[in-house]
Structures are given as structure tokens and as C-alpha cells.
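Course assignment 3, question 2. Fill in each field.
Student: A.L.
Task: Predict the tertiary structure for the chain below.
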Amino acid sequence: MEHENKKASKVRRDIGCRIGRVREKRGLTQSALASLIGESPRTITHWENATRDIRTEGLIALSKALGVSADYILGLTDVETPNQTIQAIHKETGLSEAAVEALISVNYYFDTGSWKMLAFISDLITAPGGLWEAISNNAGRYVTLSRKSPLTSEEYDKMLVSLFACQEFMKEFVKGLNWEEK
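Answer field:
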């Protein structure tokens, strides 16, 4: 029991340190932060001094007000914002930021067991009458209208290449999965 209390207080201290560090980095006083999130300055002091646990509502409000992820406040990551995570993965792998965001979304669906949603997305892109077919069948029409379209022909080509890559990825992806809910 005593070990659990020490562990809990260490977690609270870590959370408090992160709140205080980010608050100061943003140039906010405890009173200013309290006003932003609808809490009393005393509550902010309790959180930063690790004398009181933070409620879920408070965590969400802090995350929004300070512009950091809740995972960062809780010490689950050292990356302050999800955008920094995307940029770090982009830099490390060479994948576009859009591709990284897509993979993070796919990972979310895996983690939450939302197999039906992934199947729906796959069908939307690859099924007969799906997105890919609609764009492919109307390609000539889009090119002819390109003078009136906000897309340049280069942007249109990039869009088609991206959609083709997405279609191929989804086809391979679908082959390797059993879409039944577990």
C-alpha cells in the first residue's frame, strides 16, 4: 500500500512539473491559466505541487489551454503535441506528413478494434463504383475542365498518383486482414 502511494505521488509530481513547465513556457501565471480553464488559482497550485489529483475535465481543459496533448501532461510521451510526433516521424522515415497522419489513423482503428470502419474505408476506395473508379472514369473530364479548376495539371497528376498509391496500399492491406470483429 505504501509503495502504491509513493508511486502515485511520483506520478502526481511529474504531472505537476509538466503543467508548471508548460505554463511558464507559455508565459502564463497560475491565475491566468486558472481563468482560461475555469478553475481557481488554488487548484492550479494543488496540481503543480502534487497535492491533488487532476480530474479528467481539468486535464482536457489544460491540454487545450496549454496547447499540448493530454499524453504529454500525463508523462506518457515527451512530445508536446501530436503535430510534433507527425513531423518527427516524417523526418525519420521520409513519409509525407499526410501519409504519417493516415497511418496514425489506421493505427487508431486497430487499437480500438474498429475493423468495420477500416473495411468501409477500403471499400470506399477500392470497391467497384468506389472513389478510385469514379476518379479514373472521369479523368478526361477533369483534365478538360482543368482551365476552370483550381487544380493545375501538375496538382491533378499528383492527386491521381496519390490515389493510385492509396488504392494499391489498401488492396494489399485488405488481403492481409480478416475483417471480422474479434
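Instructor remarks: The domain at 2-79 is CATH 1.10.260.40 (434 Repressor (Amino-terminal Domain)). The radius of gyration is 23 Å.
Grade: pending
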